Amino acid sequence: MPAFPNDESLIRIKRAYEKPALSDGARVLVERDWPRGLGRDAARLDLWLPALAPSETLVKWFSHPGMMSALQRKYFNELKTPKATEALEQVYEYLLREKPVTLLYGGDNAELNGAVLLKNLLEGHRMPPNSTGPAKAAAAGGRVAARAARRPRR
Predict the structure, then answer these.
(1) How many H-runs (helices) and E-runs (strands) does the chain carry?
(2) Are the C-beta atoms of residues 13 and 115 closer than 8 Å to each other?
(3) Using CA atoms, how far apart are residues 30 and 16, in angstroms rounded to an integer?
(4) Cβ–Cβ < 8 Å for 30, 53
(5) Which of 28, 45, 77, 149 is deepest in the core (most CB within 10 A)?
(6) pLDDT band at 123; cut points 50, 70, 90
(7) Which residue from 53, 29, 26, 56 is spatially nearest to 40, judged by alpha carbons?
(8) Residue pLDDT, tens place only, 58-83
């Protein structure tokens, strides 16, 4: 399995309303709802992954920047769903191909939004939820094989 690139310049964050650029690479919207007033053609999206957006309850926490670690922990717990895991795998596929990914958000706060939380996860600044990541399948296969090797045959 190829190593995950550790080049932080591969992951960018941009407000969905900003003009698309060629340097954006894959443009991924990580909002539950489509940004108001933004046309689908103007957005030039490659992926819209609402499963990676923080819940409405969690978005209310964005007004409390001092709670970043608790916010991050709660967000990662939300990413343990099968839909979120599948969406994360799609983003990891782009990164494994060393293609730049621009995470798009729709809110006004550039410092604290779902795209910032997700970028921290993807760059390895925070631990991912237990059920996600490109090595999940490989690790699971290794555990199954090790368990089978330890088990005596009858």
Answers:
(1) 6, 4
(2) yes
(3) 10
(4) yes
(5) 28
(6) confident
(7) 29
(8) 888 887 777 788 888 899 999 999 99
- How many other CB atoms sit within 10 Å of the CB of residue 30? 27
The predicted pLDDT at position 150 comes to 55
CA pair distance 99, 7, nearest whole angstrom: 11
Of 116, 137, 136, which is closest to residue 52 (Cα–Cα)?
116
| Structure tokens that stand for 18 in this block | 């900003």
Q: Between the CA atoms of 130, 132, 135 and 139, what dihedral angle is there, to the nearest 10 degrees?
A: 40
CA proximity to 43, closest of 13, 21, 11, 12: 21
**34 burial level (CB within 10 Å; 0-12, 13-18, 19+):** middle
| Of 57, 25, 38, 60, the residue nearest 105 (C-alpha) | 38
Which residue is it, tokens 């368990």?
147
On whether the CB atoms of residues 55 and 78 are closer than 8 A, the answer is yes
Amino acid type, 134: P
- Nearest Cα residue to 135 out of 96, 84, 87: 96
